[in-house]
Structures are given as structure tokens and as C-alpha cells.
Amino acid sequence: MKKTLLILLILFTVTPIISVAQKQTKEEKAAIARAAYDVAVKCVDAKNFVIVPSSYTDKEGMIEANTDNSNFLSFETKKLFLQGDIVCDNRYTNIAEATEYIPSFDKKGNLRLRIVVMGRMVKGTYIISMRSNGNMADVIFTPQSGVTRKFSGPIVPLNAANYNKRSNPM
Questions:
Q1: How many Cα atoms sit within 13 Å of 85 on the Cβ side?
Q2: What pLDDT does 5 receive?
Q3: CA dist., res. 81 & res. 65, Å (int)
Q4: What is the DSSP string of 90-159?
């Protein structure tokens, strides 16, 4: 009987401590996500960011994971570098110029970025949507001719990204 009471007493004293610890981790997670969002917004404003897809929608409409870091979209101050079938509907390393670059925010702080690209091998529109609770972006690429591409990935600064840019861009 004494053991049972002792176990119940320990259980009741430990349970509130566990719930307080969980609240702190949720707050910490929210703070980390907000910091990642702030960094991503600063990168978008500076036109200096990379998106390496973590997942994409294939031709059959199925969502697949991307493990190849040679598929990416990078904006390096004045030029866009687009590489991979997932990102730009061809396998080249494309250099393009942004003829339109329009970021906008809604009431909740969600980012929506419209980029119209014009390059030798790629022409079309990228719509990038990012919620205000992290740096994960959903991207829709609508080429002038070809198949619409959809992918998701984090927006990160150029110096923090892990991507494989091939030589001899077009």
C-alpha cells in the first residue's frame, strides 16, 4: 500500500513538470521557425537565396522526395540559376533574368513571390508561397511551353545552402 501511494505521489508531481517542459519546447520550436522565416524574408528582399526541393510532384501527380541536390533554384543578386528537371523542365544549368520580381505579404505575414524569368533555355513564371511559420516554400513553375512543375523546399541564404551547381551554364 505504501509503495502504491509513493508511486502515485511521484506520478502526480512529475506530470506537471513534463507538461511545462513540453510547452517550453513548443515555444522554442516556434521561435526557431520564426527566426528561419525572418532570415528567408531578408534573403528574398536582398534577392540572394536558394531553394533546393525537398519534395516535388511528378508527372503522374504523386508527391516524391528529392534526394538530389543538383536540382535547385538560386537567385544571385541579378541572375537566376535554374538547374534540374524538377525545377525548370530541362536538365541544363540555366541562367535567366527576372523580368518581374514582385514580393507581397498577406494579413498573416505569409509571403507570395512572383518571378517571371527569361533565359535562353527557360521562360516562364515562378510563384513562390511561404507561410509565416517557417522557411518552407511551395513553388509552382509555369513555363511558356511545357509541363507545369510543383515542388517544395526551404528558402535559405546562398552561403548556407547545400547544392551542386554544374559548370557551363546556358
A1: 6
A2: 47
A3: 22
A4: SSSEEEEEEEEEEEEE-TT--EEEEEEEEESS-EEEEEEEE-TTSSEEEEEEEESSS--EEEEEEEEEGG
Question: What pLDDT digit, counting tens, does each position of 126-141 carry?
Answer: 999 999 999 999 999 9
Place of cell 507581397: 104
Cell 544549368, located at residue: 93
Q: Cα dist. 159→56, 65, 74 in Å?
A: 24, 24, 11
Q: From the DSSP assignment, how many helices (H) and strands (E) are in the chain?
A: 2, 10
What is the identity of the amino acid at 99? T
| Alpha-carbon 56 to chain mean position | 12
Cα 133–101–36 angle (5° rounding)? 20
Q: Give residue for cell 506520478.
A: 11
Which secondary structure element, helix H or strand E, spans residue 83, and what is its range? strand 79-83
Cβ 117 vs Cβ 74: under 8 Å = no
pTM value surpassing 0.85 = no
- pLDDT per position as a tens digit, 50-74: 999 999 998 888 999 998 889 999 9
